[in-house]
Amino acid sequence: MQGDLLSAKDVLRHVFGYDEFRSGQEAIVEHLIRGEDALILMPTGAGKSLCYQIPGLLRSGVVVVVSPLVALMHDQIDALRALGVTAISLHAGMDWTEMREAEDAVARGEIKFLYVAPERFENPRFLRLLDSLQIALFAIDEAHCVSQWGHDFRPAYLDLSILPERWPATPRVALTATATDLTRQEIVARLQLQNAKQFISSFDRPNIRYEVVEKNKERQQLLSFINQQHAGESGIVYCLSRQKTDSVAAFLKNAGISALPYHAGLSPEERYENQRIFQQEDGVVMVSTIAFGMGINKPDVRFVAHIDIPRSIEAYYQETGRAGRDGLPATAWLAYGLQDLMQQRKLIESSNGDEAFKQRSTDALNAMLAFCEATSCRRQRLLAYFGETTEPCGNCDICLEPPELWDATVAAQKLLSAIYRLQHEYGEFSGAKHLVDILHGKKTERVLQQGHDALTVFGIGRELDEGQWRGLIRQLLAAEYLEMQSEGFRNTYRLAKKSYDLLRGKKKIRLRKIQALSKAHSNNQMPAQNRSIFDLGPADAKLFEALKQWRLQEAKSNGVPAYVVFKDITLYQIVINKPKDRAALAQIEGIGDKKISNYGEAILALLK
Ligand code: ADP
Ligand code: ZN
Questions:
Q1: 0.85 cut: is pTM over it?
Q2: Residue 18 CA: which ligand 1 atom is closest?
Q3: In 215-361, which ranges are E strands?
Q4: Which ligand has an atom closest to residue 15 CA?
Q5: Average per-residue pLDDT in the chain?
Q6: Mean pLDDT of 94-121
Q7: Which atom of ligand 1 is the closest one to the Cα of 141?
Q8: What are the pocket residues of ligand 1 if the criterion is a CB atom closer than 6 Å to any ligand atom?
Q9: Do 34 and 26 form a contact (C-beta atoms < 8 A)?
Q10: For residue 372, what is the DSSP state?
Q11: 45 C-alpha to center of ligand 1: Å?
Q12: DSSP strands (E only) in 35-168
């Protein structure tokens, strides 16, 4: 055992260039080296790949990795090759000759890591090839793709039950960053991992700061967020529609940010090219629909911004998890408004799912709304969703600037009785705009036509502005005092059961204070902070830039992402430590033997 552990550490140092295992990795590596099965649940960026790669390197035979996307495979393969490890993929995009050559290389025993899509197991030729090989282990990456309830469901993952049937003695390890219980149970059942040890890490991503703001001018808000907190850094902005993706990307570009769009409406070439630029160059902001997802392995994404509310907490967590994989500070920023909710509700209504599906989707959306309207630590809420309990984090907007609460009982009663009266005196349900007009006592065309100015609630709510009333509606929805109903193009509100106690004065309610619109604009950003994560003096900053330039050239000429050459943290440590020779260079995190031999001289020359 001792011997194994020593050699695992050697591999960590010499191949990967890291001194220490991260929490959880060592136990997993030890377990897999012994040839046992495992299920590994770790959040994005925690370092899952190493967990099967090191045992794979230490066991004899080829490691077969099942991965859902070609982009993901390429990423892993690029990274392994840069470390001097042989890796190849077999996928449907290859032509016959390429496929043959790759298979032959595998058959000759020249390849350590073989990446395949799950569909490959439907191919008899491939099965025969595997039968002829010694297999070190099967790694099933993104194992949550077996889950029929999940958003990444991939039918071919179900066929992976062939693994235990055909190769019962070969160890299997399933890996995922999706944490819900249901998904975990499905993975165990589908992949027959009942006897596998489960390694479940905390899902906390302490380096990510969560911030949620109310939307008023989303583009301006987004722009000031980027400029104030992440100028010149790379990030992802998620929007709901293709059209918005294009227009927001154009808007940012106009404002001097190197932004690119990404969505399913672009041609495959454009998408590929935009993704390539994002991966390869520094400081690119990708504005995208959720089509830009699983395939992103870039470790130095400094922020993920949502300018439309995500459809569930799970989706939000997956998407925000793409920030800060390198463990350095990153921000998850979300701007949301009532309008978004309606948009999402419409999507749910118009989907072809059955009633049960629609109900589940609506519940998921409501949980997301409750997260947005939270008055206590956001991280606590997120982790609670995944069954973990923690202390308030000190690194979310609410911990950093606790919201002011106010007694909203009277305002809520006014709003609820407006809804109640409209229903009972006129048999009508209304949307937010009309409700606010009534509370403000505005004689709009609709008010006059329908005689709503005769309501006793007409004009009783002038103390709050429209934004504040809308905010109250959102909060009451989140707290389940109101229910939202879609009627054609508009959404209307009705009272939920529990609102009657509030109306009758049997209950009080305290809510987060919503600022008047006139004040909100200047205040709804977190205070500007100098959040440059690499705090360097002018000379060092110049050196850092020079190293980045060198890295970009190197990445371009090898056709790999910049971080495959070196990650930011590695460049940073080079700048700080200014190693004089190869031995000193080898001490730096992320520099293993292969990188020394490839880049050692160039770096040392640059430092002089
Ligand atoms: P995941 O698959 O869990 O999202 P990765 O396997 O891509 O995460 O790892 C995330 C990043 O962390 C990678 O850049 C990887 O090289 C780095 N990493 C993994 N393990 C260690 C370690 N022990 N020390 C330093 N960096 C590590
Ligand atoms: Zn917090």
A1: no
A2: 24
A3: 235-238, 259-262, 285-288, 303-306, 330-336
A4: 1
A5: 90
A6: 96
A7: 2
A8: 18, 20-22, 25, 42, 44-50, 297, 299, 325
A9: no
A10: H
A11: 6
A12: 38-41, 62-66, 87-90, 113-116, 135-140
